[in-house]
Write a structure and sequence with these properties.
By secondary structure, the chain is α/β, with parallel strands linked by helices. The protein has helices at 25-37, 68-71, 89-95, 97-107, 113-119; strands at 15-19, 53-57, 73-77, 84-88, 122-124, 138-140. The chain has a domain at 13-64 and 96-140: Ribosomal protein L13 (Ribosomal Protein L13p, Chain: A, Alpha-Beta Complex), CATH 3.90.1180. The chain has a 4-stranded parallel beta sheet with strand order 5-2-1-6, covered by helices on one side. Strands 3-4 form a two-stranded antiparallel sheet.
Length: 143
């Protein structure tokens, strides 16, 4: 039995729309990360960037289960001494829900050139409208 290996020149990329309204943030991020990597394709090859473009809409309506809104904290460092900044998940979801989704997806991608190329194909929208209608994206339903 032979193994099919994808080549970068033969990869066909499609556009998908994922609606995050009413869905848990982490479960949506798993689906988006798999689409960006190309794991849903039969020609998936781990060392080749064979993923698709993904548009996530309604990121402001994604939910966090349990007590995560009050207990989860996002950290960032300015690089200066004492420059550790922290933001609670409730504030992050109110102000920058698209960035919270991006951080969740980025954490599920490989930490190398492959992952950096994948995150470039992610497009996030807070509302239900997106500016990528010309690409004719298909709707992807979450399980």
């Amino acid at each position: 039995m032979s193994t099919t290996l994808a080549k970068l020149e033969t990869v066909e990329r499609k556009w998908y729309v994922v609606d995050a309204a009413g869905k848990p943030l982490g479960r949506t991020a798993v689906t988006v990360a798999n689409l960006l990597r190309g794991k849903h394709k039969t020609t998936f090859t781990p060392n080749v960037d064979c993923g698709d473009y993904v548009i996530v809409i309604n990121t402001d309506k994604a939910i966090l289960t349990g007590k995560k809104l009050d207990q989860k904290t996002y950290y960032r460092v300015s690089g200066w001494i004492g420059g550790l900044k922290e933001t609670k998940a409730r504030v992050m979801m109110d102000n920058r829900s698209d960035y919270a989704m991006e951080l969740a997806v980025k954490g599920m991608l490989p930490k190398n050139t492959l992952g950096r190329n994948c995150i470039g194909r992610l497009h996030l929208c807070k509302g239900a409208e997106h500016p990528h209608a010309a690409q004719k994206p298909e709707a992807w339903t979450l399980d």
